[in-house]
Automatic annotation (TrEMBL):
Residues 1-23 form the signal peptide. It comes from Chitinophaga filiformis (Myxococcus filiformis). Keywords: Signal. This is Lipoprotein. The keyword Signal applies. PROSITE patterns: PROKAR_LIPOPROTEIN (PS51257).
Length: 174
């Protein structure tokens, strides 16, 4: 009888230990799911109040979100090397973007935002010499921009070089 009760006790201990390990694994997995979900929800809420712009990394999720937000079109597969920068520290703001794309994407941006080809020859972008390697001021100065906006409110400018498929976008308030 003692031999059977020893085996029974050993079996019960083993089963108890196994159940504890398995339930801890499930609990740990559930904790990770809940934690990751709350981190995603927190990031989404924070991004609405303080949007993130990645001037040092191309094609990030934040940059893709800013593209859709500012240009009011869906991101397509032809949009590559997307960099964004936003400055909201003063009463006015400025947003810069650089990306490569097809002419069809430029056409959709122009139509969606009501941009018109500028008739003025001296339409220069805000100059950020050397601050960003992707903001090519010399190239921008050679292009005629599309623009829209109202005095004392905000302005949008879009430059596009069809030969290089390079686009530069600037939005600012005054």
């Amino acid at each position: 009888m003692k031999q059977h009760s020893g085996r029974l006790l050993l079996t019960l201990c083993f089963l108890s230990f196994s159940m504890t390990v398995l339930s801890c694994g499930k609990a740990r997995h559930k904790m990770h799911v809940v934690t990751n979900g709350s981190e995603d929800a927190t990031k989404a809420q924070t991004d609405r109040v303080y949007p993130t712009y990645n001037a040092d990394s191309a094609d990030t999720k934040d940059n893709q979100n800013r593209f859709k937000e500012h240009l009011q079109i869906e991101l397509t597969n032809d949009v590559k090397d997307l960099y964004t920068y936003g400055d909201f520290m003063a009463i006015d703001y400025s947003v810069l973007m650089s990306f490569s794309c097809d002419q069809s994407t430029i056409d959709r941006i122009i139509e969606q935002n009501g941009l018109q080809l500028s008739t003025e020859n001296n339409m220069r972008a805000i100059s950020f010499p050397g601050k960003f390697r992707w903001w090519k001021q010399e190239e921008i100065d050679q292009l005629i921009p599309y623009r829209a906006g109202e005095e004392d409110e905000f302005w949008q400018y879009l430059w596009y070089n069809p030969a290089t498929r390079q686009a530069f976008y600037e939005e600012f308030s005054m």
